[in-house]
Amino acid sequence: MQQALLSTMSSLSRAMRVALRPSNLSRGMWRVCGEPCEWQTCPTCATAAQQEQVVDLIMGTKMNEIDPTSEELADILVTLPCRHTFTVETLDGHCAISDYYLRWDGVWSGLAPTPTDIQKSLACPLCRGPVNTKRYGRIQKRADLDMAEQNVANSSRRALQEVAQSTEGFSLETETERVVQILSRQTTSEPEDDDENDRSTPADKAKLEFIASKSLFPINVESMRGKTLKRFGFSGAVAKEWNKCIWNLMTAYNSAVTISQERFPLLRTYDAAVSVLDRYYSELLAKGEV
Q1: Do residues 166 and 158 touch, judged by C-beta distance below 8 A?
Q2: Of 10, 43, 48, 82, which is the most exposed, with the fewest CB atoms less than 10 Å away?
Q3: In whole angstroms, what is the distance from residue 137 CA to residue 188 CA?
């Protein structure tokens, strides 16, 4: 698996270098490889208004001051979907590309660990439109993932607040006294020793499976309901009253269990990455290359 992982990372690194390198167009103009040609603006063919646009926000360079034959990042242009044009050097700094890729002696050499803090979506420096370009695809995907993670976290927090509010009216002392009074009027009886009582219920099976697996998830709510009490000799009346006592709590408990089992986007992304590596490794094994 380690060899497959290293091989995959090497392939990604090669693909990244291809995506980030400049590519020569006709008429001598250089562009970034992978960007849609129909979107790009030629500084020679641009309108007078376009040529007056500032394309380097640091140096204040205008489009008509760009050398279209230069291979320097300060002279290669990228046009965004909003049709605003900037130099690669400007967008690289604006999108913090150095936080996502490694550079050695002026050459992109590999992938860097992504930042640990929450990333915001990339936006055009002028109009705040989306930066949907392949060169910054990894950066934007990380921002989209962070946004999805925040959305799930916010929705889970609101759901937990609703669960907490639904249990505010529950009084343990009151319900305990109620159950004690019910039990004082009832007597327990030995369960009948027949096939019906010997047969395991779904609640029993769920409880046994939970204990056997030592699952981190909460136990099935069915094992807490009144029908479990009946199997220990309590009457149906006691079981019915027990269900009434715990109804609100069990409803809230079910909601909390559902929230706890939510798979956050980062976990789903990790699972997908492991699945891809597993398939890749399996293909290498099938070909006898490992």
Answers
A1: no
A2: 48
A3: 68
